[in-house]
Design brief:
Blueprint: H1 8-33, H2 38-63, H3 65-77, H4 83-90, H5 101-112, H6 116-119, E1 122-123, E2 129-130, E3 134-142, E4 149-157, H7 161-169, H8 174-179, H9 189-202, H10 205-218, E5 225-226, E6 239-243, H11 250-253, H12 258-279, E7 281-283, E8 291-293, E9 299-301, E10 307-309, H13 312-327, H14 331-341, H15 352-359, E11 372-373, H16 376-387, H17 401-420, E12 423-424, H18 426-433, H19 444-455
Helix pairs in contact: 1-2, 2-3, 2-4, 3-4, 12-17, 12-18, 13-14, 14-15, 16-17
Length: about 450
C-alpha cells in the first residue's frame, strides 16, 4: 500500500535528506578527488552520479506531487545532465510506485457515488500507469450515448496529493539543485515560478477534462493527431475517464526505423504549432510519457493538466516576433517588438543585429529553406543560451511570465526532436502553420492534414 507523505514536516525532511545526500556525495567525492589519479577520478564521478541518481529517483518517485513533476522536467530538458541522473529521472516520466487498489476505489466512490465494481462493467484494480499526481486503470463502461460497451482509461488522483503539492511548492527550488549538477551557476527561478503557478491548476481534474475535450473536439478526424474523448458521466473532481488507447511508448517507438521517427517528429512539431496558432492554447507538459505512437503514423496525445491559454494580444506578439525574426529578417522591427513585450529593457547599447541574433536562437531551424536534422546538441545549446547570463545583452533581458511558458514548450519540443534526430525541411512545415503565410503542403503528411482542414 502506498502511504503518501503529506505533512510539511515529513516532506521537508525528505527534501532535506535528498539535498543532503546530493551535497554529501559531491563534497565527499570532491575531497577524495584531490588525491586521485585521472582514472580514479572518473570512477569517483561515476560513483557519485549513481548514488545521486538513486537518491533522486527514490525520493521523487515516492513523494509524488510537485517534486516529481520537477524531476520529470529535469529528465528531458538537457543532455548535459550526468547520464545516470538523467536515466534515474527519466523513470519519472511514465512510472511511479502505485497507490493501493482500495485507495483508488475510495477516491472513485467519493467522486462518483459508487465503487468502481458497481460503476464499470469491468474494472482492473491494477493500474496500467502511474505518474506525478494520479494513476490510470483499465475499465469497460456502457457508453450512455451509444449503448455500446467501451474500453476506457480511468485516471484517479492520489488522495492527499493536493496537500503534498502545497508543501512541495514551498520547496520547489530543489529543481535548481538538480539542474545545477549539469549547469554550474544556473538560476532556474523563472521556470520554478512557472511550475508553481501551473501545478495548482493541474490538481483540478474537471479543468483538465474540459481542456482535453476541447483538444479532442478541435482535432476530431485529424489524420495523424488523436486526443481521446472524455466521458463526463464517469468523471469528477479527482477522476477522469476517457477512451482507452493502446500504442507504443516513447522507448518502444525509438527502436523504429529513422523514417518512422522522422514522421513522429513532424507530428509533434505540427501539434505544437497547429495548437498554438489555431487554438491559442497548448498542452504545456511535453515529455515522452504523454504520447502513444501508432504504426500508421498517428500519435495519441495524453495528459492535459497543464494547458496554457494565450490571449489575442499575446498571440499578436508571438506572431510578430517570428515574422520579424525568421521571415522578414528585420532586426530593427524584432528589437522593437521585444522591447514592447518586455523581453528587452530599453537602453541596451548593442546594435539591432546583435540583439536579433541573441534573441532569435529559437528560430534557427526555421530561418532558411533547407533540410535539417535535429540534434540533442542543438537542444542543449538552446537551453544553455536561455540560461546564459554572461552576455552584455543578457543584462537588459527579462523573461515575462508568458514567455517562460513558451520557452518551456520550445525547450521540451526541441529536446524530443533532438532525441529523435528528426530530419525534414522545417522551414516549409512552419510556413504551412504560420498564419501570415499559410503555405502549401510540403510533405505527404501535410497533404493529409490540408485535406482535413478543407473538410472541417
Amino acid at each position: 500500500m502506498l502511504h503518501l507523505r503529506t505533512s510539511r514536516t515529513q516532506r521537508n525532511s525528505d527534501v532535506v535528506q535528498l539535498g543532503a545526500a546530493v551535497g554529501l556525495h559531491y563534497a565527499g567525492t570532491a575531497a577524495r578527488k584531490v588525491f586521485a589519479s585521472a582514472e580514479r577520478r572518473v570512477e569517483l564521478d561515476r560513483e557519485r552520479e549513481l548514488k545521486t541518481a538513486e537518491a533522486v529517483a527514490e525520493r521523487l518517485g515516492n513523494m509524488k506531487g510537485a517534486l516529481m513533476k520537477l524531476g520529470q522536467m529535469a529528465s528531458y530538458i538537457d543532455e548535459s545532465l550526468p547520464a545516470p541522473l538523467r536515466d534515474a529521472l527519466s523513470q519519472l516520466q511514465s512510472s511511479a510506485p502505485p497507490m493501493s487498489a482500495e485507495l483508488a476505489a475510495e477516491v472513485i466512490r467519493k467522486d462518483l457515488g459508487a465503487r468502481p465494481e458497481a460503476l464499470f462493467l469491468e474494472w482492473d484494480p491494477d493500474p496500467i500507469a502511474a505518474a506525478s499526481i494520479g494513476q490510470v486503470h483499465r475499465a469497460v463502461v456502457l457508453d450512455p450515448l451509444t449503448g455500446q460497451e467501451r474500453a476506457v482509461a480511468v485516471k484517479v488522483q492520489y488522495p492527499g496529493v493536493a496537500d503534498a503539492v502545497a508543501t512541495d511548492l514551498k520547496n520547489a527550488d530543489l529543481l535548481g539543485l538538480i539542474l545545477q549538477q549539469g549547469f554550474g551557476g544556473l538560476d532556474p527561478a523563472d521556470m520554478v515560478t512557472e511550475v508553481k503557478e501551473r501545478l495548482t491548476e493541474e490538481l483540478d481534474y474537471r479543468l483538465e477534462a474540459a481542456n482535453q475535450q476541447r483538444f479532442a473536439d478541435h482535432y476530431r478526424g485529424h489524420p495523424f493527431i488523436h486526443v481521446p474523448d472524455v466521458l463526463p458521466t464517469f468523471s469528477g473532481p479527482h477522476v477522469i475517464t476517457s477512451e482507452l488507447v493502446d500504442g507504443a511508448t516513447w522507448q518502444e517507438m525509438m527502436t523504429w526505423p529513422q523514417e518512422a521517427r522522422d514522421r513522429v517528429g513532424e507530428v509533434l512539431f505540427r501539434f505544437v504549432f497547429r495548437s498554438l496558432y489555431g487554438m491559442h492554447a497548448f498542452n504545456g507538459d511535453p515529455h515522452p510519457g504523454n504520447y502513444l505512437f501508432h504504426r500508421d503514423g498517428r500519435v495519441t496525445f495524453l495528459d492535459f493538466g497543464l494547458v496554457k491559454h494565450f490571449t489575442d494580444s499575446e498571440m499578436t506578439t508571438f506572431i510578430g516576433m517570428v515574422k520579424a525574426a525568421a521571415y522578414d529578417h528585420d532586426a530593427t522591427k524584432f528589437r522593437r517588438i521585444l522591447e514592447q513585450a518586455g523581453m528587452l529593457r530599453t537602453g541596451c547599447p548593442a546594435p539591432d543585429a546583435e540583439i536579433g541574433e541573441y534573441f532569435s536562437q529559437f528560430y534557427e531551424t526555421v530561418r532558411d529553406d533547407r533540410q535539417i536534422t535535429w540534434s540533442s546538441e542543438y537542444s542543449s545549446s538552446i537551453v544553455r543560451h536561455t540560461f546564459d547570463r554572461s552576455s552584455p545583452i543578457a543584462q537588459y533581458a527579462t523573461v515575462p511570465k508568458t514567455f517562460v511558458f513558451i520557452q518551456r514548450i520550445n525547450l521540451g519540443l526541441y529536446a524530443l526532436l533532438g532525441e529523435l534526430q528528426a530530419t525534414g525541411n522545417y522551414r516549409r512545415i512552419a510556413e504551412e502553420l504560420w498564419p501570415f503565410v499559410q503555405g502549401p503542403p510540403s510533405t505527404p503528411m501535410a497533404e493529409l492534414e490540408h485535406a482535413w482542414l478543407r473538410d472541417r
